[in-house]
Amino acid sequence: MRYLDAAAVRAAISIEDAIAALRCGLSASAPPQPMRNSTQWTGGELLVMPAEGGKVTGVKLVTVGSGPVRVQGVYVLFDAATLTPLLVADAGALTLLRTAALTALATDLLAPRRATRLAVVGTGPQAREHVGAIRAVRPISSVTIVGRTPAKAAALAAALDAEAGGDVSDADIVCLCTTSITAVVRAADLAPDVHVNAIGVHVPHGREVAADVVASSFVVVDDVQGARREAGDLITAVADGAVSDEVFAHDLASLVRGHIGPPGGGRTLFKSVGFGLADLLVARLLAD
């Protein structure tokens, strides 16, 4: 059984391959998936995310803490028929790649084809990852990095050939990659036909977008079960009376399969909390 560290995971899978694997995997039917479990530890949270699909099964054990490295863990991939372990891989790298690839897939299906201006709120690893992912699906001509700490925003912008500072008002695509539990953008901050990706928060009491953003958008979630439990952006909007429970109705798989379609215009919102099948679809590339 092999162990693949973070560098090996990144060397094995490109963002383009990860997007393609998710598009293909979500277009096909899959067996009912177990729900992920969360355990609160003294130092943070443990997530256990099992999944099954095709010839492999897998489970991600990942911790979310407050140390220098926020997300850590391992992914174990098994042969589905014999349940023999095939490999163990760094879950932090896999999660970065999977999350950004899911966002890019949703963006490719929801954002206007003419979208060229990207704004990323956040300065951490997911912010960096999302710039490359969105560039893979749209001809991005300008990138703006918005962060609470100007020095961090400037450093990330310099590394990504982007600009630092400013706001999100002129962006065609906005990626929210923060750990904030209070809204960082409101409807008045956004263009009328912008596509927004909210991916940084997965707790029911936290949100990156205000209720008026949810109410003014066509909303797609990555996973309905997970969103109902953890998508605080939507949960709080329902609790505030801004939207009905139907806000959870549209998931990414339905969009990929053509069961639902994006509106002809207006604002769109993709809310992601992460789910085990997406991890498996990307991890399967490692076995291949």
Give me a quick take on this structure:
The chain has 288 residues and is of the alpha/beta class. It is built from ten helices and 13 strands. It folds into two domains: 2-95 and 277-287, ornithine cyclodeaminase, domain 1, CATH 3.30.1780; 112-274, Rossmann fold, CATH 3.40.50.
Report on this model:
The protein is of the alpha/beta class. Helices cover 34% and strands 25% of the residues. It is built from ten helices and 13 strands. Strands 9-8-7-10-11-13-12 form a seven-stranded parallel β-sheet. Strands 1-6-5-4-3-2 form a six-stranded mixed β-sheet. Helix 1 (6-12) packs parallel to helix 3 (91-110), helix 2 (15-27) crosses helix 3 (91-110) and helix 3 packs across helix 10 (276-287). The chain starts with a strand and ends with a helix. The relative contact order is 0.17. The model has no long low-confidence stretch (mean pLDDT 96).
Annotation keywords:
seven-stranded parallel sheet; 13 strands; 10 helices; alpha/beta; 288 residues; six-stranded mixed sheet; globular; Rossmann fold; ornithine cyclodeaminase, domain 1
Distance between the termini: 14 Å
CATH topology name of the largest domain: Rossmann fold
How many DSSP helices? 10
Strand content: 25-35%
**Which sheet architecture does the biggest sheet show?**
7 strands, parallel
CATH architecture of the largest domain: 3-Layer(aba) Sandwich
| Shape summary | globular
List SSEs in N-to-C order.
Answer: EHHEEEEEHEHEHEEEHEHHHEH
